[in-house]
Amino acid sequence: MPGIWKLLVVNHLDDISPDRCSVPKIFITELPGIITFIDQSKEMNRFRYRSFLFVSIPLTIAAFGLSMRHSGSDATSQKNEDYQLVWSDEFNQDGRPDTSKWHNEQGFVRNHELQWYQPENVWCEGGRLIIEARKEQRPNPNFEEGSTDWKKSRRHIEYTSSCLLTRKTASWQYGRFEMRGKIDIRSGLWPAWWTLGVSKRWPGNGEIDIMEYYRGHLLANIACAGREGWKAKWYGKKFATDSMGGKAWADQFHVWRMDWSDQEISLFLDDRLLNRVPVDSLYNRDGSGFNPFRQPHFMLLNLAIGGDNGGDPAGTSFPNRFEVDYVRVYQRKTAP
User: Fold this and answer.
1) Catalytic: 212?
2) pLDDT tens, 186-235?
3) How far is it, in rounded angstroms, from Cα 110 to Cα 113?
4) pLDDT at 53
5) Is the previous residue joined to 18 through a cis bond, with omega within 30 degrees of 0?
6) Terminal CA-CA length for the chain
7) What are phi and psi of 81, to 5 degrees?
8) For labelling alongside 162, which of 95, 130, 140, 173 has CA 20 to 30 A away?
9) Annotated catalytic residue: which of 207, 228, 264, 323?
């Protein structure tokens, strides 16, 4: 009779963090014995094999699915067979981020956000990228008395954080983009993983928000220029994080993915489709006819605070973090 087996661990798992390993679902045969789980380790294409002893107990359930936090589903792995890895950062070297892949934004940058971007707030530790938002006051070196420029009218810096981007180092046109990360969803925080086109000013260069969070919602957005040119036309979807589990959901790592081809852009969270838009519909409406999604884009990773969309951080304790396990870019294999 088919049955479910009780698993008795016969060796230690001290070297496997539950945040960092993946165990595929397994289906138990009728005979007890030794079964091996495969844990895909942090390093690319390297695996560890762990053995367990299981013994039969008389239940009528035919299969057992063991789930843990993981870096992607079997379905995604199968799809990846059509792609080849062209760029990645696994963040395995402690210290500052790899300057051959990333550079930092500096100062007050966009959206009237409260944070001053600086390289001191980002580092690699334990195989993860850490972007840390801090509440700390210091003089604004660009302050000008009476200035109407918001970047110069603030006498003090009240918050600091970091933004990494690949604008000077790498850009891609089409492909599969994956990021495994963990975000803080407290009030006033605005983490994002997104892309911008290399040609034209925003929004005419095109924007893709593969992961964006603020004010209690995850967003999956794509933007091109509207009729006015300076105003964006958005193709967006929004999802309440409370419906996903709230803080318990945010305390776990998740995989965000974009599949971008010459036909469509699809945005996913843990293999769940969030948004899909045909590329042909994403041309700028300013009369130019330019399609910003038929050009290369570069990536950005940042943790913003407040500003136009981020909300009020006054009741939020600091510091807090946006943690990234890896970022990977794949492109379709060329025909032999």
Assistant:
1) yes
2) 999 999 999 999 999 999 999 999 999 999 999 999 999 999 999 999 99
3) 6
4) 37
5) no
6) 48
7) -60, -25
8) 173
9) 207
According to DSSP, the residues that pair with 259 across neighbouring strands are 176, 266
Does the annotation mark 158 as catalytic? no
**How far is residue 49's CA from residue 41's CA, in Å, rounded to a whole number?**
10
Strand, coil or helix: what is 41? Answer: coil
Catalytic residue among 212, 228, 264, 323: 212
Alpha helix (H) ranges present in 139-281?
Answer: 150-153, 247-250
> In this structure, which CATH number among 2.30.130.10, 2.60.120.200, 3.10.450.50, 3.40.630.10 belongs to the domain 75-332?
2.60.120.200
Instruction: Read off φ and ψ for residue 307, nearest 5 degrees.
Output: 80, -155
92 φ, ψ (degrees, to nearest 5) = -85, -15
The pLDDT, as a whole number, for residue 79 is 59
CA angle 117, 122, 125 (to 5 degrees): 175
CA distance 250 to 225: 32
Tell me the pLDDT tens digit for each residue of 9-48: 333 333 333 343 333 333 333 333 333 333 333 433 333 3
Whose CA is closest to 254, among 193, 311, 299, 320?
193
What's the whole-model pTM score? 0.78
In the chain, which stretches have pLDDT less than 70? 1-80, 335-336
Residue ranges, comma separated, of all CATH 2.60.120.200 domains in the chain are 75-332
The set of residues, in sequence order, having a beta carbon less than 8 Å from that of 221 and lying 6+ positions away, is 207, 208, 209, 212, 234, 235, 236, 237, 275
In the numeric block, which tokens belong to residue 59? 């239940």
Q: Which structure tokens are listed for 198? A: 């290399």
